[in-house]
Amino acid sequence: ALTWCALPARGQYDFPVDSCACHIHYEIWVQLQYQLSQVLTASFPEQLFQGGSAAQHFIMRQDCSDPRKKKNINEWTLGPATSDCAPGHMSHYILCAQASLLQGDVEAARLHFEFANYIFPLAMPC
Fold first, then answer.
1. CB 113: neighbour CB atoms within 10 A?
2. Mean pLDDT over each residue of the chain, to the nearest integer
3. Of 4, 86, 123, 126, which has the maximum CB count within 10 A?
């Protein structure tokens, strides 16, 4: 006798991307959080323009690209916005804006702040 057994179909729910998880580059994000907590103090504004200060050294060693050299703005906005680490990308853009200001490049600073503002609503709940 032919017996046919119907099994219920099962599927896996694909959770939406958690923009606060920061799993992909977890170690980098944890280090950045700690470094930011050490540098972004009440004296940060004064230290930023004080030659040789820890804040200035930290800001100037960030790996920042020139935002004007990207042809596709989506690389700067949608990619980070859909990643699993919106606060990490936003923090990086803010640091790059500060570095641009130190170098006297107000236009690059404005663009970095613009990118950070784009990601801000996604990072806010984090």
1. 17
2. 85
3. 86
Domain count, the chain: 1
Alpha helices in 51-105 (DSSP H): 54-60, 74-81, 86-102
pLDDT digits over 52-67, tens only?
999 999 999 999 999 8
SS3 24: coil
Residue-range definition of the domain harbouring residue 76: 44-123
Query: Structure tokens of 42?
Result: 């009440």
A 10 A CB-CB count for 13 gives 5
Evaluate whether residue 36 is within a structural domain.
no
Q: CB of 75 within 8 A of CB of 11?
A: no
Does residue 99 lie in a domain region? yes
> In the structure encoding, which two tokens stand for residue 30, read together?
């944890």
> For residue 112, which amino acid is it?
H
How far apart (Å, rounded) are the C-alpha atoms in residues 88 and 91? 5
